[in-house]
Structures
1.
Amino acid sequence: MATVELKHITKSFGDNTVLREFSQTFQDGEFITLLGPSGCGKTTMLRIIAGFEKPTTGELYIDGQLVSGGKTFVPPEKRGIGMVFQSYAVWPHMNVFNNVAYPLTLKKTPKAEIQKQVERVLQIVHLTQYAKRLPNQLSGGQQQRVALARALVAAPGLLLLDEPLSNLDAKLRESMRFEIKEIQKQLGITVVYVTHDQTEAMAMSDRIFLINRGVVQQSGTPEEIYNHPVNQFVADFLGKVDFFKGEVKDGSIVFPQMGGQALPYDGPRTGKVEVAVRPENIQFDPEGPLQGVLEAQYYLGDVDDCRVRVGETLVRVITGGYAYKTLKEGDRVRLSVRDQMVFDDDGMLDEKLQIQT
C-alpha cells in the first residue's frame, strides 16, 4: 500500500501550462480516478507520479518520501509502482508466464520465488490455465490481464493505470472494470486510474478528480460529484443532463422557451437562472406541472429514451423500458421533475436552491 501526497504541482511545456496547483493526498488503499476530456492534464499528472515527467513546480511524496521536487528526483524503477498503459505492451515472443515474470527476472529474483509469485498473480487475474500461451493466442481482454498481472507481480504498493480499457470492446470493458476493482480490493493497493470515460470513473472509484484545462474542477465520491456538481462543466461532463434557462418570478421559475410554463420555487435566488435536470429525474406524471407532446421514443431494452416537446424546448426523459408499451408518439403528456440543480448566471451551483415539485 502507498500514500501519495501532491503539493502545489504545476507542469508547463514552454508557455503551455497543462497542470495548475494540484494539491491533494491519495490515501492507502484508495481507488482514485483522474477524469476529464482529452488534453486536460490527467495523463501528465499520472506520468509525474510515475516519474516519467518532472513537475515544473511543487513536490511529490510517496509513502512520506520526497520522490520529485526541487533537486530531488527518484527514477520510476525505484518508486515501488506498477503501471499499465493503454496499449497492452506484452512481449509477443514470450508466453504468458514469462511476460508476467519479466519484472522479477530483471531483478534477478530466485527462480523458485518467481514461480511462486507468478502463479499467485495469474490466479488473481484468472489466467492460470493460459500460462503457456503466446499473446497472439489470447483475446484482447486476456492480453490486458497479462499486462495487469505483470504490473502486480512485484507487489507494488501503488498501481497506475492509463486508460487501460480503451482498446477493448464495450462488453469486455464492462467486465474488466469490475475485475480491476475486485483485484484492487483483494490486494488493498492504492490505484490511480486515468480515463475520459465517466462510466468507468463512476463504477470503479472511491474518489474522482474531474480536471479541465489543467485545473481540478471538483473532487469527491461518484455520488457527490454526480448529484452535487459545483459548476455546469461538472454537471455536463458526468452523466446525461439538460439545461433550461429560466427566470425566478413570484415563487416560480418560469421558462420562456417552454411557452412560459413554470415550476414552483421557494429559494432565495432572484432574476435569471439555469436549471440542470438529468433525464432520469424527469417523470411522466398526470399531475405534473409541465405539459407537452411525446415527439419520439427509443426502446433500449432496459429503458425507454424519450423526447418530449414542451413549448419550443425538447426535453429528454429516460424511464423504464416497460413504458414503451404504454406510450406512443403524439401523446400529450405531463411531466414532473425531481433532484434539479439550479445554477446562477456564472454557472455556479447554489445547493440551497431547490425546485419543489
2.
Amino acid sequence: MTSYAAYVFDAYGTLFDVHAAVRRHAAEVGPEGQRLSEIWRNKQLEYSWVRALMGAYADFWQLTEEALDCALTMVPKVDPSHRDTLLEAYWKLDCYPEVPIVLKALKDRGARLAILSNGSPAMLESAVKNAALDTVLDDIFSVDELRTFKTAPEVYELVTTAYRLYPETVSFQSSNRWDIAGAGSFGFRTVWINRASAPDEYRDLAPDMVLPNLQKL
C-alpha cells in the first residue's frame, strides 16, 4: 500500500499537454504557432485569476475561447480561420507519455486517484476519455461546482471533503508552481512536476518534492 491515501493531479500541463492543440496543426498555423500557444495558455490562466478575484465566474471553456481570441489578435500572422480547428483540438489534448503507466502503477498500489482542475466537467471528461484514463481515475473534481478557481482554499477542500481525509494524507501533483503554492498552503503534500525546468517563484511556499515528470512519483 502507498503511504498516501490519495494521489490528486492537476489536469492541464500536468497530465495533458496544453500545447498539443497548436502543435497538432503546426503546419497550417505556421512559424508563430509556439508564440500563439504560449499566449493562449497565459491568458487562459490570467482570466481565471482575475475572474476569481472579482467573483465573476465564467467556466473554463469560455475562458479558453476568449484566451485564444486574444492570442490570435496578438499574433496577427496566424490566420484566425484556424480558431475553430484549434478549439476542437483542445478537447482531445495528448497526455504526456508516462502518464498512463504511472497512474496504473499507483492504482495497483491501492491509492485513490483523482483529477482536481479548473477545467469544466465536459472538458475534463473529453480529455480523460481521449487519453483512456477513465479506467484508472476514481474521480474528477472540477471547480465548476464552486464557481471559482484555484488557488482558492475551498477548491482543494473538494478532495478532503469528498474523501474524508486530512490534507496531509493527500499527495497533490501539478506542473503549475502557483497551484503547488496554493495546495501546499492548504496542507497537501505537494509535488511540483517541473517539466519546463522553470525557476522557483514562491520560495516561502516550497513544494515537498520537485520532479521533471511523473515517472519517479
3.
Amino acid sequence: MTITPFILASSSPRRLSLLADIGIVPDRVLPADIDESPLKGEVPRAMAKRLAFEKGAFVATANPDALVLSADTVVAVGRRVLPKAETPDDVRRFLQLMSGRRHRVFTAVALFRPHGKPLQKCSESIVTFKLLSEAEIEDYCASGEGIGKAGGYAIQGRAACLIRAMAGSYSGIVGLPLFEVAQLLKSAGGNS
C-alpha cells in the first residue's frame, strides 16, 4: 500500500502551526512562487480563491502523486484589497483605514489530489477594530508585527487588543480555516 505524501504549499509558519494544532504534519513544505497581484476588477473573495488555486496548482504540477494543500488570505475593506504590509507606513495606512470599522477576511484553501479534481473552500470572517488612537497605531507600527501580514495586522498577536469584535473563523483570519481544511481532507479521504 502506497502512502500519498502530503505537501503544504505555503511558507507561512502560522499555517504550519495551525495544521499541527489539529495533529497534521506535512511531509514537505513547498511554497509556491506565483504573482499575487490582483486582476483588474477582481473582487476580494474571487482573488483569494484564485490565488489559493494557483499556488496549489503550481506545487501539484511538480508533485503529481502528492496531496497538496494551498491557501491564500485576502483582507478587504469594501471591495478594496489590503495587501501584505511591506513597511510601517503600510501598516499605519491600513490601521487608519480600518479604525472604528469592520472589514472582511477571506481565506481560501485548495486541495489537489493525485487522481481527482481539486477541491476548494473559502472562509469569510468579519473583523471590527475599535476606534484607534494615533498612539495605538504608532505603538503597533513600532512593534513590527504587522509587516508581511495581509491587512497589516496579526489577530493572534498584539492586534488582539485592538479588535472589538470578530465573526467567522478565527483560524481563517490567522491564515488557515481549520474547519474547511478538515472538510476538504475528509472529502479526499485524507488526514482528518
4.
Amino acid sequence: MAKIEILYNKKVIDKDIEEYYNALATNIQFSGSHVKKIVISSVKENEGKSTVSINIAKSLAELGKKVLLLDCDLRKSSIVARFRLEGKTDGLTSYLSGITGIENVLHDTDVPNLTILPAGQVPPNPTNLLQNKNFDLMISAFEKYYDYIIVDAPPIGVVIDAAIVAKKCDASILVVESGAIKRKVLKKAKEQLEHSGAEFLGVILNKLDMSAENYGAYGSYGSYGNYGNYGKKK
C-alpha cells in the first residue's frame, strides 16, 4: 500500500441524498453474495457516473464493507479531482503498463474501509491496456481481498472500454441524466452492458427535477432522481 495520504473531498451532502446512496448500497448487498465487482457507466459524458461511483463506494465502506474504488476511465478521469492527494500519484495505467507494482497504485482514504486506485496518466492505448493480462490478474487478486470493487468506467455510448471492463465484473449499473437521453439510445446502452455477461442491476436516473409535474419519457423514478445533485458531475 502506497504511503500517500489521500483525503476524501468532503462536501455538504443533503441528508436525503445520503440516505438514497445508503439505500443503493443496501440494495447492492441484497443482490447476492456473488455480486462483488460492479461497473458503473453512463450513456454519455457529464451524467454523474463518477459522483455515483464515489458515493456508492463510500456508503458501502461506511456499512463496514472493505471497498476498492477502481477508476477505469483512462481517457477522462475525474475521480482524482474529488480527492486531495499529497505527493506523486501513480495509477492504474502505470500498473497495467508494467511500470510499477500494484502496491504503488493503491491509496488509502480518510473514509475507513475505502481504498482508491486512480486511473493515472492518460495512455496512448487505453482500450488495449484494459484488455491486457495484468488487468485480469489484478481483478482476480482484488476480489479475494475486498468485499466490493466499484468500477468507474467510461460512458458506454462513447467508447467500448466500459463493455470490456463489464466482462470482467459481476454486475453493471447505468447512470442516466433525466431528459438527456432518448429511449432507444438508453436501450442500446443497456443491451451493450447485458451482452458483456455481467448482471444488469438497473438504471439510476440522475439530475431529476423533483419539482416538475412530470418526469419525461422515463416516467417517475421517485426520490432517487436526487442522486448526484451536488458538486461537480461527470
